Amino acid sequence: MQPTVVMKFGGTSVADAQKIRRAAARIVAQREAGRRVVAVLSARGHTTDELIAAALEVSAHPDPREMDMLLSTGERISCALCAMAINDLGHRAISLTGSQAGIVTDTSHTRARIIDVRADRIRKALEEDMIVLVAGFQGVSTSRDVTTLGRGGSDTTAVALAAAVSAEVCEIYTDVDGVYSADPRIVPDARKLPVVSFEEMLEMAASGAKVLQLRSVEYARTHGVRIHCRSSFSDATGTVVVGEEETMENPLITAVTHTTEEALITLSGVPDRPGAAAAIFTALAEAGVNVDTIVQNEPKGEGVQAEVSFTLAADDLHAAETALGPVATELGISGIALDEQVGKVSIIGAGMRSHPGVAAKVFQVLAEEEINIEIIHTSPIKITCLIREDAVPAAVLALHTAFGLGGGEQELPIGQQSR
Ligand code: ADP
Ligand code: ASP
Ligand code: MG
């Protein structure tokens, strides 16, 4: 049987007619090289942002089910257009919605999780020598509604399909040459990483490197999918995400990541008794709010009340506020402060596990930039600092330089994994 490859094209890679034709030509080239091709396409250019804006023009808090009906159209447009372009190149292509492709999700609208991929229709089309195009970022729920997978979700569609059809590789074509040591939009001398381990990629995706959606990396790790993240606009080798056992050495620091899409909530006057935190975070969990760093300050002394702060995605602020209302009344919480002007900067490296002094250096570098750290959060291979949003670019640049990550691209062949 011919090997299968999954090729995913992001929004900028299909933004106009010329780019769709270019993606079609790349897909056809793989087919002509003797591979079966499943291609996953994102919505064109800023389509998803425009659809969200259109929804907000008619409703302050759009119904999530209807939001999914709306947002899922963007990727369908790309797929139908690309199928037309492929047909004109003399190959047979069929475009499928997520639902037609057999992507089954749970029922959490706008952030659904894939729970099953029933790929028989795709397999049949491949056997009939067709190129299969699947609309990214969407599926059908167990209650038969259209769902979407959260921003950047086409990456996860691609990885899930790669697992389902046992593809030899899942190629993620995007507007950068691969995964870099920092966002190349902020750090001009960021370096392309020839390989990155799942462990590090998970931390990077979770802390803002949106080049791969976090869930796509989780899914690839669980199902053993090989991800190759590369440029739509060149043939250069990109970044391969590999198992920890395949990385030959662990650099101290691999990357600096950042996000400004965070918000901070501080609850004051929280009663200092067992069960208070449980009540707060249960209410948030039931509302589907994903909470990140949690800090509780408990001043010493009789009857003194605690302050609880936590970070969350800015998109979840409204849901969090709504969920906190009743529990705040019940517990007698005196204040809920919402702060959207926060950002996070993180350094990631599997090598920091065995090296003391990394945290001290991070704090020193930020101090020299006169950047105040509000909350610190660590994992064995990551240090994250919550800072003011407007200080984020300077913090990223300073940390990238201080840890010696710059210096242009160091191209190494795949398989030769020292960095
Ligand atoms: P696509 O539309 O192809 O899915 P995304 O916009 O989702 O593309 O992701 C690619 C973008 O991710 C890049 O343009 C880059 O600005 C950003 N990015 C952030 N951090 C990194 C990083 N460490 N390496 C590469 N790109 C990054
Ligand atoms: N179009 C969706 C988004 O902009 C999904 C994706 O591109 O992966 O988030
Ligand atoms: Mg993306």
Look at the structure and name the CATH superfamily of the largest domain.
Acetylglutamate kinase-like
Give the CATH class of the largest domain.
Alpha Beta
The biggest beta sheet is recorded as: 8 strands, mixed
Question: How many independent structural domains?
Answer: 2
CATH architecture of the largest domain: 3-Layer(aba) Sandwich
Structural classification: alpha/beta
Tally of extended strands? 18
CATH topology of the largest domain: Carbamate kinase
Unreliable stretches (pLDDT < 50, length at least 5) are 409-419
Strand content: 25-35%
**N- to C-terminal separation?**
36 Å
Q: Shape, please?
A: globular
Q: Nearest-angstrom radius of gyration?
A: 23 Å
Instruction: Give the strand order of the largest sheet, numbering strands 1, 2, ... along the chain.
Output: 3-6-2-1-9-11-12-10
Number of helical elements? 11
Helix percentage: 25-40%
Mean pLDDT, to the nearest integer, reads 93
Bound molecules: adenosine-5'-diphosphate, aspartic acid, magnesium ion
Oligomer: single chain
| H-E order | EHEHHEEEHEEEHEEHHEEEHEEHEHEEH
